[in-house]
Amino acid sequence: MLGRAARVASEETAADPHPNRRTWAGVGDREAGRVDAYLTLETLTVRGLDQDWFLNAWSTFEPGGGNDMWLRDYEKKTLSGRRAVSGRDFMQAPADDSGNRQLTETYRAVLFTPVLSTVLLMSIITKDLGVFEDIVGYGDTIADTFTFSNVRSAA
Prior knowledge:
Largest sheet: 6 strands, antiparallel
């Protein structure tokens, strides 16, 4: 059973068509109840993003479509020496045919620079709440390692 589940997860992650996203899958057997989890990591560069707008947008976002938002925890901070907003939210999808509701925890961070801002999105998708640990701590650690070059010094 786990071999088939691992093969399906591997095929799904290999088929991810998004060029800026990296996806990893894991399949386990928590007390014979099989756990599937997916981790995605994506970075984007955006021009002209406002710190307060980002904080407000992700603190009030309503997904619709029968999805429920459980927790929104975003705040202003400093990461990698830059002004930033980071945090997380939980979204639960409608029930599937077997009655399970997939849960996604998403970490988002924006590191603001004078011209271009870097957005980091990290998601964990699973049906097992025990998979979630400290996504904000992991995400902030990754974001805090970002380096930015100065155009003048690069020239």
